[in-house]
Specification:
By secondary structure, the protein is an alpha+beta fold. The chain has eight helices and four strands.
């Protein structure tokens, strides 16, 4: 598969089949993704992989906590800026509206929206979960490096016929995640990621979010 094909076919998968992913495949993904660039070759990423019965046990822990804590334990960083300005605010709003429309959940259906949001914490049925963390001493440049590592995993997954769902939503359960997978105190949880095979029949997986036209984000000078 060409890189352009991987980019074009990648989506945020919100409904997975329960088909297992071989450990050898996961290891190959991570071994290849480590070639992602990082300033000074710091390689500031840490990844914790969970599957099988361990993942089932972890999901049960979260499921037991969710009713009393639907918004988790808070976060250690701002997932979005507190006052999101345009055009970013409109883009985020449309993304949410399009996603809920794909499964027939209206804006007025608060229970339906909460039910869908809670599926984040089942990894949308993915058989493999990854959690990514970064050393607390790192700065913005290294967070960018971590993002490139995660993007590399997502694109490589397409080569194996797999899909992914990157989830910053897991930041609201940083304490429980850290305790379960053993994230040391000197590291901060960034996000989770579901990995598995896409359920092609799930309406929510038909969503393809918009992208701004080239002239909106790129400028050229001398070329």
């Amino acid at each position: 598969m060409k890189v352009s094909e991987a980019l074009d076919t990648r989506l945020t998968c919100r409904a997975f089949k329960d088909t297992p992913v071989p450990r050898e495949t996961i290891e190959r993904l991570l071994e290849t993704a480590k070639r992602a660039p990082s300033g000074g070759n710091l390689q500031p990423w840490h990844v914790y992989v969970v599957g099988g019965q361990e993942l089932a046990d972890f999901k049960k822990i979260i499921a037991e906590k969710l009713p009393d804590n639907p918004f988790g334990e808070g976060t250690e960083y701002q997932i979005y800026p507190p006052s999101l300005k345009e055009p970013y605010k409109a883009r985020r709003f449309k993304c949410g509206e399009d996603m809920y429309a794909s499964i027939g959940v209206t804006r007025e259906d608060k229970a339906g929206r909460l039910t869908q949001f809670a599926k984040n914490f089942d990894f949308f049925g993915a058989p493999v979960a990854m959690f990514f963390s970064i050393d607390r001493t790192m700065q913005e440049g290294q967070w960018s490096d971590l993002g490139m590592f995660i993007q590399s995993i997502m694109l490589l997954a397409r080569e194996y016929g797999l899909d992914t769902c990157p989830q910053e939503a897991w930041a609201i359960w940083y304490k429980t995640v850290g305790e379960f997978v053993g994230i040391p105190d000197e590291q901060m949880l960034f996000c989770g990621l579901g990995l598995g095979y896409r359920d092609e029949d799930a309406p929510i997986n038909s969503l393809r979010t918009d992208r701004a036209p080239l002239e909106e984000y790129a400028s050229f000078k001398g070329i």
